[in-house]
Description:
The protein is an alpha/beta fold. The protein has 8 helices and 10 strands.
Amino acid sequence: MIAKVFEDKKSLSIAAARRAADLLRAAIAKNGGARIVAATGVSQLDFLDALAKQSGIDWRRVEMFHLDEYIGLTITHPASFRKYLLENFIRKAGITKYHLLDADPERDPHEIARRAGAELNAAPIDIAFVGIGENGHLAFNDPPADFKTEEPYLIVNLDEACRRQQVGEGWFAGMAEVPMQAISMSVRQILKGKVILAIVPESRKAQAVKSCFEGEVRPEAPASILRTHPATTVYLDKNSASHLSSAALSSLAAGA
C-alpha cells in the first residue's frame, strides 16, 4: 500500500479519478471490459463526478457493484446509496450494467446478499473504490471488523459512531432515523480486488487515518487491513493526513 497526500479534496479527487480512468481503459483494452466496486458518501462525491467526466472510457463495458446499503430504506429515500449511485455516478457516466443492493423493507436482506455475492464472484474485480469512515470502517464493516469471513456480503450491525456520521453528513435528521443494520461487502471480498483506490479527504477522517495507518493492522481499525494489499493507493488531503506522524507519512509514501 502507498499513500499520496494532496493540497485539498478537489485535487485529491481529480488525481484519483485520472488514475482510475487509466486503470479502466487498460482493463477494457486487455479484457474487453472492467468490473468495479463503487463507494458512496459525501467524501466520494468529487471523485465520482471527476471520474464520470474522464474521456476515453467505454462505460458500456464497465460492470459496477454496490459496496453497501442500509436495510429497510426504499430507493427514493434521500440516504439510499442506490439513489446516490444512480444520480451521482451511474447516469452521469452512462453505465448500463450495474448491480444494486435492493434492500427494501419487504425484501429478505439475506437473500439479497446471497444473490449479489453470486453475481460478484462470477469473475474478478478489477478495481475497488472505497472510503474510510470516521470510525475507521471499511464499507460498513465497523470495528471490530470480521477479517476472516469469506462471505462476499454480510448483514452487519451499525455502531453508534457510524450512525452518528450519517446524521452529521446530513443524510438523516436524527439518530432515530438511521437504520440499525446494513448489507456490506466483507473485508476479505474487498481485498480480492486487483487494485484498490481509497479516497479519504477531510479533517473529520484524520483520526481514523492515523488509527488505521499507524500501529498494528487490527480489527479495531478496520481500514488498517488495506496495508496488507499489494496494489492499494490511499488518496489523502492535508486535512485527512494531518494527524499522521512524519515517520508514518514517509513510510506510506514509500509503500512500506
